Amino acid sequence: MINRRKKIALLTAIGLSLSACGTTDNDAPSQGYETYISDGQPFKHTHFEDISGHPIDLSKIKGNKLIILFATWCSDSKRTFSELNASALINDSSLTILAIGREESPESLAEFAKNYRVKFPLIADEKRQIYSQYANKGVPRLILLDENNRVVKTLIGETENIIEQVTWN
């Protein structure tokens, strides 16, 4: 009886952790999400280095930008990347897409890029220094920026078809 209870408790814990990519510690899914940047505000980071060591300067990139804060282990993040790959956004030459891996190493991001056919720059945020400037929890987070790097919209991508909500209107 005790072994059965332990198995049920373990399976329940695994299920909850996989179904709610945004939860941390003992938080309940979808509760307590905070976004630390609002529409119209300038995006705080403009200089990055991707996992291949190439510098990225958002201030020199023309057009709209889509910033994705994600985690490779998160089912919602994986679904968002699959949706993005199936969308017209992926081939839009006027759009720059960057993805920042929360608590991810360059190696884990390189493996993810291979598995999910990622063709845009990935940035490792191993110590959550970038992510913590924009949110307390929840991945994927999508931040839409205009040509001047001002926030147009923020989205929490824990629902299906989130890519359909990526518009600059």
TrEMBL record:
Keywords: Signal. Residues 1-22 form the signal peptide. GO terms for molecular function: antioxidant activity; oxidoreductase activity. PROSITE patterns: PROKAR_LIPOPROTEIN (PS51257). Residues 41-152 form the Alkyl hydroperoxide reductase subunit C/ Thiol specific antioxidant domain. CDD domains: TlpA_like_family. This is Alkyl hydroperoxide reductase subunit C/ Thiol specific antioxidant domain-containing protein. The lineage of its organism: Bacteria, Pseudomonadati, Pseudomonadota, Gammaproteobacteria, Alteromonadales.
